[in-house]
Amino acid sequence: MKKVFLFGFLLLVAAFLSGCGGGTPQSVSTSSDQPTLSQSPDTSDSEESSPPRTGPYTIPGTYGTITLENGYKIPKDALFIDIRNDWERQNWQQDGDELVNPNLPQGSVGNAVYEYRDQNRQNPRQVRDEFVDEVLNLAKNNKHRHIILICHSSSRTKKAAKLLSENGFTYIEQIDGGLNEWNAYHLPVGTVKEIRPASSHQIPEEALFIDVRNAWERDNGNYARGSLYGAVYEYRDKNGQQPRRVRPEFVNEVLNLAGGDRHKKIILICHTSSRTTKATKLLTENGFTDIAHIKGGLDAWKANSLPLGE
User: Fold this and answer.
1) pLDDT of amino acid 50
2) CATH code linked to domain 64-184
3) What number is the average pLDDT over the span 283-301?
4) pTM of the model
């Protein structure tokens, strides 16, 4: 009797355990026939796509490299920027009837310095935050303008070109080897011609002949015949009560008279050539390529009995 009871009890325990899930667990599978939802990214708040880049270097960070050769010329429609510091571009020398600056590639403009470098090397080098905006200003806010960069050895222009491209400029090129290569191929540098007037001297018809003096200095016909007024290099007070000062508008005034053409033949005159010596250098440093001045100024003009007034 006890054995029957014990056997029955064991059967009840086994049945209980089976009902409580004591067996092997079932695996759960997902049917491939069940539809799944693909969630697209929410674009309701995304910015509108930017306009396409135009120019030969459309991928941000890319730019062109120019390998110099004999006779190379900067395209006339290109903006040629020397990204060095101003002191690196100064080395004017007298060479016969010319002033020559071997540190100044002809046609290059400054006013967009990539990296500040101390002439005395007492301060660390540093990339200037203003550089991109300065280039944009020179390009008249046109990021698709053809721009060519030069420095001393191209170490700076490679980094500067990449930076400009990353900031939306699409036609940036840099000169491989920089000024070192430029001078190695004897390419043209900044030059100012000095004209010594003679009794038979005539201003070429194609030249723009500019008197850089103040209006009051031209009173009573006291100016070289054919010379234009409209680009005053240095303000001078008629009564001598105000200090003399170079006018920042001068370069743009000359550019306006030249119709925007920095390759226009331009001849300057002042009273003794003290002002035009400085003014011609300034224009050449701002990309003008055919600049001359009358050596001795209006005094020399008069001494050679050349015509006045009208």
Assistant:
1) 54
2) 3.40.250.10
3) 97
4) 0.79
